[in-house]
Amino acid sequence: MAGERIIFHVDVNSAFLSWEAVERLKHPEQFPEITADLREIPSAVGGDRSKRHGIILAKSIPAKKYKVQTGEPITDALKKCPNLVLVPSRHGIYREYSRAFISILERYSDAIEQCSIDECFVDMTGTEKLFGPPVEAATRIKDEIYRELGFTVNVGISTNKLLAKMASDFKKPNLVHTLFPNEIPDKMWGLPVGDLFLVGKSTERTLHTLGIHTIGELARTDPQILRGALKKQGEAIWKFANGEGASIIEPEPTDNKSYGNATTIAFDVTHESTANLVLMSLAETVGRRLRSDAAKAEVVTVNIRYSDLSRVSHQCELPHATNITNEIYNMACRLFEELWDGRPVRLLGIQTSHIRQAGDGRQLSLFDDGSHEKLEKLDRAMDSIREKYGSDAVKRASFLSRTHSGIDPSPGKEKHFGR
Q1: Cα–Cα distance between 131 and 237 in angstroms, integer?
Q2: Cα 229 from Cα 58, distance rounded (Å)
Q3: Does the N-terminal peptide bond of residue 319 adopt cis geometry, omega within 30 degrees of 0?
Q4: What is the pTM assigned to this prediction?
Q5: Which of 116, 233, 274, 305 qualifies as a FRET site for 262, CA 20 to 30 Å off?
Q6: Going by C-beta distance under 8 Å and a sequence separation of 6 or more, which residues neighbour residue 191?
Q7: What are phi and psi for residue 124, nearest 5 degrees?
Q8: Are 275 and 283 in contact (CB under 8 A)?
Q9: Which regions of 133-290 does DSSP assign to beta strands (E)?
Q10: Residue 284 annotated to the active site
Q11: Strand order in the sheet with 43-45
């Protein structure tokens, strides 16, 4: 171990559910209808039981026994577990608990890379004389978080971020696991290939057609075969299967490389016109963020998650780098039309990438009618009104005739990419 980098991956167990449980136990008078610890009964965070829409954001271990899954519609979860206790999400509370758990980690290292609200990497290299061997230090951190904040975490330990994350996903909850390079054959190669980072359902199916069912079989496959079947991703997952992953912790946020937004819809989208309305809502928020940072994007990507939870995406380069809402929207609609296979849609997302500064100018073509200047002025005017009077101060006419509760010109349940 001497001289090797030591990386911890700290992951809160069922974060939203755990934080909700702790908060309710601290203030029982506010929640007299549920007196039990949510972590000890079949329960979940997300959705509205009375309206029967939304998705499961986090679940308890007892709910997992009923095969309730994170990301599935609550209607499906209630069919599996009719007595499932559902509580609404409170993201403000979750951010407070996230900051509290990060502050404990800061007692042990100044090199912390937070990759989401409930997980982060910590560089513990060279701290053995202060806090003991890695497993001892990880156990100390885990117990300190539980003692002071009331919820549990898993800690994965290795020499790079990939292996540390894989280790933290081993048996849960409230445990410490190691996955050092010499432990890969025994601890990782026997796992299903779908457990490997970056291997989604579609990639898993492709690997199965190649006769690859475990991470070990993937690690021993000729990379040329994987490149032929999966292009660059094939080479990447081969490296992951052999334990090669990033080891540098980035404690400071890197420059924004993409801007995006996605929303889960409260009903199944089965018509292109409805999908286009959702895409307009997303394009407005993405365009507004680009403009506020004086940035433009050269590539647009559309992401779809179907009602069966399968995902697909499609991207295209724009004729010009832009932050104009209409140009982002038109490309997104085109991509959706090319990508959609007619199945019911539960989530739509727009992501923009290849970002550059807005002041770089725009290359005009012989066919450019100059309409982009009018659209830029329109966007600036709408941004100004919304900034002064609120996001609902001005709406496009297409939103005024819609009654679906799941379509909102400023989506509330959204996932931001890049910022």
Answers
A1: 34
A2: 34
A3: no
A4: 0.64
A5: 233
A6: 214, 215
A7: -105, 15
A8: no
A9: 153-158, 176-178, 258-269
A10: no
A11: 58-59, 43-45, 85-87
Q: Which two tokens stand for residue 344?
A: 């019911």
325-365 pLDDT per residue, tens: 999 999 999 899 888 888 889 889 999 988 887 655 555 44
CB atoms closer than 10 angstroms to residue 368: 13
Look at residues 137, 361, 244, 267 and name the one whose alpha carbon lies nearest to residue 236: 244
| Candidates 23, 72, 113, 119; catalytic one | 119
Average pLDDT over residues 279-307: 89
The whole-angstrom separation of Cα 240 and Cα 297 is 30
CA distance 409 to 65: 38
Choose among 298, 268, 310, 265: nearest CA to 411: 265
Using the Cα atoms of residue 88, residue 155, residue 168 and residue 124 in order, give the sign of their dihedral: positive
d(CA 108, CA 124): 8
Q: What is the b/e burial string over 41-73, where b = at least 16 CB atoms within 10 angstroms of the residue's CB? A: bbbbbbbeeeeebbbbbbbbbbbbebebbbebb
